[in-house]
């Protein structure tokens, strides 16, 4: 997909704290920044929900980018959906922009600690 970007991200813990994200409660927390009228965002959320059903170590948090512009700017979110993969300490393990397919998303989740049951 054009515009998709994957990179290691900065430690955004204070930003995620303000959003109410509690990564210590799961082996892997995926934070998705979305907008209301974003079709790829809805598809990505559905894929994450599907993965969460078979991966008890996975938690997901969905953030409305339009309602959290300060955090969007601080984290450099330019495209929705943007996903942040956080370890239990709140460190950003991976960042992905764009809508990954189910297989790609499953591989990312599994590679970062959200392994299936």
From TrEMBL:
Organism (species): Blastococcus saxobsidens
One Pfam family, short name: Thioredoxin
Span of domain Thioredoxin: 1-114
PROSITE patterns: THIOREDOXIN_2
Matching InterPro entries: Thioredoxin-like_sf, Thioredoxin_domain
Top-level taxon: Bacteria
GO BP term, example: cell redox homeostasis
Protein's name according to its UniProt entry: Thioredoxin family protein
